[in-house]
Automatic annotation (TrEMBL):
It catalyses: ATP + protein L-histidine = ADP + protein N-phospho-L-histidine. The lineage of its organism: Bacteria, Pseudomonadati, Myxococcota, Polyangia, Polyangiales. Residues 423-536, 543-659 form the Response regulatory domain. SUPFAM superfamilies: ATPase domain of HSP90 chaperone/DNA topoisomerase II/histidine kinase, CheY-like, Homodimeric domain of signal transducing histidine kinase. This is histidine kinase. Residues 115-153 form a coiled coil. It comes from the Bacteria. Its EC number is 2.7.13.3. The modification 4-aspartylphosphate is found at residues 472, 592. It is an enzyme of class 2 (transferase). InterPro entries: CheY-like_superfamily, HATPase_C_sf, HATPase_dom, His_kinase_dom, HisK_dim/P_dom, HisK_dim/P_sf, Sig_transdc_His_kin-like_C, Sig_transdc_resp-reg_receiver. Residues 184-403 form the Histidine kinase domain. Keywords: Coiled coil, Phosphoprotein.
Amino acid sequence: MNERADARWLSESRELALACDAHGIIQWADVRARNLLRAHPGAALTTLAVPGTEEKTQALLSRAVVSEIRGWELSLVCHGKPATVSFCARPNGEGGVELFGFVYPEGYGGAIEHLSRALTEIVNLNREIVRQQREIEQQRTELTRTHRELDESNRGVVTLHAEIEEKADALRRTSEVRSRVLANVSHEFRTPLHSILGLSQLLLDGTDGPLSEEQQKQLRFIRTSAEELSQLVNDVLDLSKAEAGKVTLRADLFMASDFFAALRGMLRPLLPSHPGVDLLFELPEGDITLETDQGKVAQILRNLITNALKFTEQGRVVASAVRRGDEVVFRVQDTGIGIAAAHFDRIFEEFGQIDGPVQRKHKGTGLGLALSRRLGELLGGTLAVESELGEGSTFTLTIPATHPEVRELATLAARPLDPSRSPVLIVEDDRKTMFIYEKFLSLAGFQVVPARTVDDARKQLGTFRPAAIVLDIMLEGEATWDFLAEVKQSPETREIPVLVVTVTNKEQRARALGADEFWLKPVDQDHLLRKLKSVARPGTPTRLLVIDDDERARYLMRKLLEKTPYELIDARTGPEGVELAQKLRPEVILLDFLLKDVTAFDVLDDLKADPRTRGIPVVIVTSHVLEPSERERLVAETEAILSKDSLSREIAIHRIRDALRKAGVGTSSSTE
């Protein structure tokens, strides 16, 4: 094809292509798009629309960002005149949209001519597809042969995997037995140790008469040995719990300055035995707020500071904290004997110790650093060391300022209610148990609403009515018997099913207070789901009120929102609509601007004057040409303004979702 033919084809063709970003700004346009529509990069696609049809153009962009669209017709300005352009659009994978359009000619003859050309191109394209299919068939044959070979290899891998899994199971069983033995033996040690410590202290205090200096010295040796053995037992217990995943997280909100003040007071008695060593706490610039397990952070830093004091004969030990993004970095730095790089891994092993004169002098259990690293991991962080022999050591604990479980639970609590799911109030202080509930209940169609305290549960009941309550009767620091009694005695909540799930076998008392079911932990998931499905109320659909005096408009809206989770009620007049809104409390109101004898402003004034309807979002749906002053007021008092001329199912659902989100009500994805 020569240049003149190319130019003529370009001038006659009405097919065009262009690309926009997520905001509708043209990024690229072919020659025909530039010639026919004056579409140039940098311009907004909506500026090409015929005045009054911009919203339909924007609706195309909004939908095409997430899914492919075919046959979407827009009214665009072509050579200064309105023209109809049929678009196919799809996401480009980078947040933008690719658009392929066809400009309908003014006459049918031109349309037939263009269709003929298009059919010719389709025939040629079909031939090319047939050729490519032959090539694909050949490739499929090759793939089948390769698949057979891979299948044979896979059988060998499966056999090897089974052997590895069997060995892994044996190792897990061995580890579980080891942890149980350690825990049982440690518990058996604690009772006689407590007796030794208590009796030796009584003797040292002279309860039964004075002791000689030599006897006191011997008793102090006995007590010191018993204290070391007691520390070893405690470390073994803590480590076995950490390895078994049975450590309970008790997160609370605290400030780094208060934490350091308490830690300083706790460790001050250690300094007299280290006369040449200073213990310093460097407070951060601007206080640091943490929400994590303060006790475990303190346990880690106590271990690090105690070790630093043991192996620092002259100089100082400095504890510091600094905020780094979403993390807090604690450092314990000393001027002690230091550690060789070759021993970095060993010091974090269980019973791992380094042989040396100073180490032999301060013989420890060899579990402190291993336990500290494991506790640091449970806090979502890491424990690392930097050191040189003779230059001192720096141990660095890096943890999230907010524990991941706390953050996840806060996200769960802040999630708006989904009208398509039955909400279940879970009153449970253990976060892991809460996440387990969330996982299997959400898959079964329920929405978990968490409450970690009785006060949280009362607040939640003041904002919504759950389909059921799952209640742990023994929360940390409080019993929930009174809460159970309140729920079952109040006329507003007595009909809510309460399922008690706890570790304390108090079924008779729970039943007496009105519990509908009682189980001991761990509860069987299938049993809980069956019970919830039998007693929980189904989720109520989102209710929409349509106020319009045109019967055809009400019918159209009902058809547009068919097969969605929205329940439509309608009113023919403004006063009737206000009365229904006060009585039924819909989640969204769709209001026509011009009604018989009143306007939307009259209805809005009545709605805003009543506390029951003041917070209901309103979407204006009208064919009236609004004056600038009218539009300005409606924009301030409503959620959106829709034109009946360009109204579609997609636009209506989109605006309803926006209004629900602003009102704090969840929406279902099933409305597509």
